[in-house]
Amino acid sequence: MQAEYLLDNLKFISQGGAVSIAVAAILLSMSIGSWTLMVTKAIQGRCLKNSNMVFLTRFWQASSASPSSMATVMDEDLNKAENPFARLAAQGINAAEHHKRYTAQLLAKRLDAAAKDDGSSALQEHSRHDEFIAQALRRVISQEAMQLETGLTLLASVGSIAPFIGLFGTVWGIYHALGSIAVGGQATVDKVAGPVGEALIMTAFGLAVAIPAVLAYNALVRGNRLLMGEMETFAHDLHTYLTTGVPLAATMTAADLS
């Protein structure tokens, strides 16, 4: 009974002509697109959270153990593109190795050429080791931030535009209904209230599409902000590890023990 009643109330969409049908189709497509994105983002966020926790635990345990353990983590985890922490660690480690190898080659060339100084000027011509790693980490963080923002523009657009599209459908439905009543010559309250009330359903459709999109957008923005904060914290700890060779947790423990 409720389904039949709903179908009867939705007949005004076809009665409103091509404009009402187009408005309803736009709202329906916006709703499908936003809900698909919301479900996809929720699943990705849950999987990403679990993989991040596993990776961080394995990484810091390997960094405190033997080099073979770190090599194992490098082979198994750092090559997984779906983990932003793994990409950040891989880029930082590659930058550290690249800078070390390049600086060693430069110093070797200057020594072979019998340079007058001890190679300190060559080091001054390039970024310091810690600054080079920090720049690489910042670049990865910026790339991950842009990747996390994928799809948020759609949700923001749906949340801001859908109510106005529904309102336009309502105005058009009321105009079409009043025009039909004027042609029929029956302008009583019972003849006007029905079509006008049915036209207001378009506004409800617009709100039903916009409200979940706005809530999901706010939730995703907050989740991305928290994730970026965790990545910045990990980048700081990783930078300390790559420049000193000792994890920050181990340094703090040794300082507390002393």
From TrEMBL:
Membrane topology recorded in Swiss-Prot or TrEMBL: Multi-pass membrane protein
The UniProt keywords, alphabetically, are: Cell inner membrane, Cell membrane, Membrane, Protein transport, Transmembrane, Transmembrane helix, Transport
Where does the MotA/TolQ/ExbB proton channel domain lie? 121-232
Its subcellular locations are: Cell inner membrane; Membrane
Q: Which residues cross the membrane?
A: 12-39, 152-175, 199-221
Q: What is its main location?
A: membrane
Which InterPro entries does the UniProt record give? Answer: ExbB/TolQ_transport, MotA_ExbB_proton_chnl
Query: Key word Membrane present in the record?
Result: yes
GO biological process, any = protein import
Which Gene Ontology cellular-component terms appear in the entry?
A: plasma membrane
Regarding protein family, the annotation reads:
Belongs to the exbB/tolQ family.
Instruction: Summarize the protein's role.
Output: Involved in the TonB-dependent energy-dependent transport of various receptor-bound substrates. Protects ExbD from proteolytic degradation and functionally stabilizes TonB.
Q: How does it assemble?
A: The accessory proteins ExbB and ExbD seem to form a complex with TonB.
**Would you tell me the protein name for this molecule?**
Biopolymer transport protein ExbB
